[in-house]
Write a structure and sequence with these properties.
Largest sheet of chain A: 4 strands, mixed
Helix content of chain B: over 70%
Number of strands of chain A: 10
Structural class of chain B: mainly alpha
Shape of chain A: elongated
Oligomer: heterodimer
Radius of gyration of chain A: 23 Å
CATH architecture of the largest domain in chain B: Orthogonal Bundle
Distance between the termini of chain A: 50 Å
Strand content of chain B: under 5%
Mean pLDDT of chain B: 88
Mean pLDDT of chain A: 61
Number of domains of chain B: 2
Low-confidence stretches of chain A: 70-211
Strand order of the largest sheet of chain A: 1-7-8-9
Largest sheet of chain B: none
Chain lengths: 300, 180
């Protein structure tokens, strides 16, 4: 499609054509299947852009504090949580060599308890807010859980599960969105462990990596950035009002690296590294990804 | 802040005006839905959607002027949205016979791909495309907000961003078609 046709499609879809011009364009579309196909794709793209923005606006509204007495119910689940960082030790760690595999999930974190508590406290001090009790409470059961170990006879586990995923999700996993693609693989691995079907495994050498905990801070007084984030390897900055409803950072580590997601006000967000750039927080819309993240959260 | 001032702020895409409306009318709108067989969550969802509809009207229609109070508009939008939701629920209830709706899997796949491709756009491109396609801003307005030299620069940037998005979508869409 040339530039002129693209502009014509834009104008038609945005309602900028006069009625006679719109009618003439519709006649062209009827007579030209290629143009009709292009129009359908462009319509979906514009809808996608609009829906992304709508989701961001909804997330912003959802995040607002409603003054007490302004509603007739007491939402104790959320409003009782004051603020701060909840770092869930949801870690799906895969270490694989030629003969053995270690699968690590939320129940088997590698961070010593003392170190993890210290990291959480550092993160909280940067927010200038008190660390909610839920933070430590939510992470401690996973620290106490025993690590399952056993022997693996073949490293085919990962491949088998991946094949299953490809067949169920068709070509989705071929997309170049690294966060989602990696997550899908690792979620399947974590889910597999959760199902109790996997063989227990034992590492033949010490674990190569330790899951990193993000140092998080929130900036509430920015006029320009009202629901945004910035992240490098170990530091997360959240812009906006996170004081009333707690957010949860989901840390998912695999052999391909660590991915971070956030749960806030019923929405999931990718916290992909922004290399110092501030980006808007846009809720994930892919239902399969959301479902998998929700499953991981339940198993925290 | 009176209604005219709020509308003026909305037209300038000031999200804080949306926040203000949300807090101000929260109780009234939620009560309406809850008293008509809705849950609190459904009521919140409907009210948020209604505010976004109003935002789109205020920002997208340059000729839009208030002919009633904003609360009247919002109440009316909430009512319509909630009626539609109740109709949808009734259609999906177990009593209804399956009308054999055709699910367009190809389109579903395409929409999924598009959403993932939008998520991979850099922030600047996403903002430009949102301002153009959702907020319906002119190139001059986009140039001002984004700090570009002029409308022509904004137009060039928008063209490049859209071209990049189209290319990525079509690459993945064709790859998916091939794999099918």
């Amino acid at each position: 499609m040339n530039l002129q046709t693209n502009e014509l499609i834009d104008d038609y879809l945005l309602g900028r054509l006069s009625p006679p011009d719109a009618e003439a364009f519709e006649q062209q579309v009827k007579a030209n299947p290629e143009l009709a196909n292009e129009l359908a794709i462009q319509n979906d793209i514009i809808n996608g852009i609009s829906n992304t923005r709508r989701a961001a606006l909804k997330a912003r509204l959802n995040n607002l504090e409603i003054p007490k007495g302004n509603w007739f119910t007491n939402n104790t689940t959320w409003l009782s949580v004051s603020a701060g960082v909840i770092v869930l030790a949801i870690v799906a760690f895969l270490y694989q060599n030629n003969t053995s595999t270690t699968v690590q999930t939320a129940e088997t974190p590698q961070i010593p308890q003392k170190e993890q508590n210290q990291t959480a406290k550092e993160g909280a001090s940067k927010t200038n807010q008190s660390l909610p009790q839920e933070t430590l409470a939510s992470s401690s059961p996973s620290q106490e859980a025993p690590t399952k170990k056993g022997n693996v006879t073949k490293p085919a586990f990962k491949k088998e599960v991946r094949n299953k995923e490809v067949s169920s999700n068709e070509a989705n996993s071929d997309l170049s969105d690294p966060a989602v693609t990696k997550f899908e693989d690792e979620t399947v691995l974590a889910s597999k462990k959760g199902s109790g079907e996997e063989k227990e495994v034992e590492a033949t050498k010490p674990v190569a990596k330790t899951a990193q905990t993000l140092n998080a801070e929130t900036i509430t007084n920015s006029n320009q950035y009202t629901y945004h984030y910035k992240r490098n390897e170990t530091r997360l900055t959240l812009y906006g009002n996170f004081s009333e409803k707690a957010y949860e950072v989901l840390e998912i580590s695999g052999k391909s690296g660590t991915n971070y997601f956030m749960f806030h006000n019923g929405n999931y967000f990718s916290l992909a590294s922004t290399d110092g750039e501030i980006r808007s927080l846009t809720p994930l819309t892919d239902e399969a990804t959301i479902k998998k993240l929700a499953n991981l959260r339940k198993r925290k | 802040m009176d209604d005219q001032e709020i509308l003026l702020r909305l037209k300038k895409r000031d999200e804080r005006a949306l926040d203000y409306l949300y807090k101000k009318h929260y109780k009234m709108m939620l009560n309406m839905v809850v008293k008509n067989s809705g849950t609190e969550d459904e009521a919140k969802d409907i009210f948020q959607d209604a505010l976004i509809v109003f935002w789109e009207k205020a920002t997208g229609d340059k000729d839009f002027v208030l002919s009633a109070k904003i609360s009247t508009y919002l109440y009316s939008i909430c009512q319509n949205l909630w009626r539609k939701e109740l109709d949808r629920k009734a259609r999906n209830s177990g009593d209804m016979v399956d009308k054999g709706e055709v699910v367009d899997y190809d389109r579903e796949e395409r929409v999924n791909i598009i959403n993932k491709c939008i998520a991979t756009l850099n922030e600047s491109c996403r903002q430009i495309l949102t301002l153009y396609y959702f907020e319906k801003m002119t190139m001059g307005e986009i140039a001002e907000i984004m700090g570009f030299a002029n409308a022509d620069t904004a137009k060039t940037k928008k063209y490049k961003c859209k071209q990049e998005l189209d290319k990525t979508v079509k690459q993945h869409y064709q790859a998916s078609d091939f794999l099918d």
